[in-house]
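Running low. Got one?
___
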Amino acid sequence: MQLKHCLITIISVFLYISVSAQDKNHLAFRKISEREQMDYHVADSLLLKLHQYKSSESSSQYWKITNLLAERQKTYDNLYNQLFDNWEQNYISDYMIEKIKSAMYDIEDCVRRANIALDQAPAAEDAELRKENPQKYKEKKQSDGLSKFTTSLFTMGSSGSTDFKSIGLNVVLSLPAQSVPIYSDVVQTYSDPQYKTSSYSNSSTSFGYVGAKLDLEFHILNNDFIDLQLLGSGTYSNTGLFTSSLGSINETDEYYDYGYGASLAFGLPALKLYGEYMGGYRNVNYVSDISTSYGSGTTDITSTSFSGYTFNRFTGGLKISFDTDEGESFVKLKYAIEKPDIKSTNNNIWGVGLGFRYFVDISAMYFPEYPVSGTPSYRINNNDKQSFVTVTIGRAFNLFGGK
C-alpha cells in the first residue's frame, strides 16, 4: 500500500512538472510570435524608407537586406508551422523554443541592418551627387538649407532632429607668436668713467615666439545653421629659452595669457554671421641684458618691462564654411573691439582678424594702435604708437561629437 502511494505521488509530481513546463513553453511561443510580428513590420517600414533613396549604395543595401529578410522570414515560418502543429498536440519542446527564438533574433538583426543603412543613406546620396554633378549638389544643399532653417532654430540636433549628437569638444594645439606693446625701462652703463649712466623709458613691444597655445571649443548647439560654443584658451611663451645662449645677449621674454568666453555663428550652411566674446588676463615679463664694445671699453644695456592686465574683447564678422574631408573647415573674417584695463587709455581699441581651418588651423589678430601697458620708471624718451599682433598656426582635433 505504501509503495502504491509512493508511485502515485511520483507520477503526480512528474505530471505537474510536465504540465508546468508545457505552460511555460506555450507562453514563450506566444510572446515570440508577437515579438516577431512587430520586428517584421518595423523592418518592412524601414526598408520602404530606404527604398526612397536613389544612390547605388542605398539601392544595394535595400535589396541585400530585403532578400535576407525574406530568407529569414521563410525559415521562421517553417519553424512556426512545426510548433503550431505541436501546439495543437499540446507538446512544445525546449529545443524547438530555442530554435524559433534564434530565428526571431535573425529578423531583429535585419531591423538593425536596415536602421544602419537608413542612417547612412543621406550621406551616401549626397556623396554620389557631389561626385557626379557638383553644381546640382550645391543647389540641393542651398535648397535644403532654406527649407530646414526655421526648424533648426528650435532644435538641438543636426538637420532639425532633437537629439544631442551635435554636442562635442574640439581641441586646438598651436604655436603662437605675439607682439605686445609695453613700456620698457632702459639703463645704460659704461666701463669708461667719462660716460655717465643714462636711464630712460621707451614705448616698445615684447615679442614672443617660443611657446604653445591651447584652445578648447565646446559645442553646445551645433548644426548646419547655428553653432554655439563655450570657449577657453591659454598661451605660454618664453623666448629666453632660446636667446639666453647667445653669449652677449641674455634675455627673458616671458608671456602668458588665458581667456574664456562664447561664440555664436548664425545663418546658412555656407555663410553665417559670427559673434564672439572673450575675457581674460595678459601678462608680460621682459628682461634683456646686452653687452657691446664701445671704444676701448664696454657698454651694458639693461631693459626691463613688466605688465599684467585684464581685457574684454567683442568680435563680429562672417564665417564662410566649405565642404572637405577634414571635418569642419572655414574662413572667418573678423572685426574686433577690445577694452584693456590699462591706465593710459579708457578707449575701446579696434582691430581686424582672420581665422582659417582646413588641414591646419591659422588665426591672426591685428590692432594697429594699441595702448602701451606697464608703468615707466624714468622719463619717457619716445612714446610712439605701437601695434598689437598675435598669430598662431596649429592643428584642430575633434575629441568627441561636434564637428
In short: Confidence is low (pLDDT under 50) at residues 1-21, 150-165.
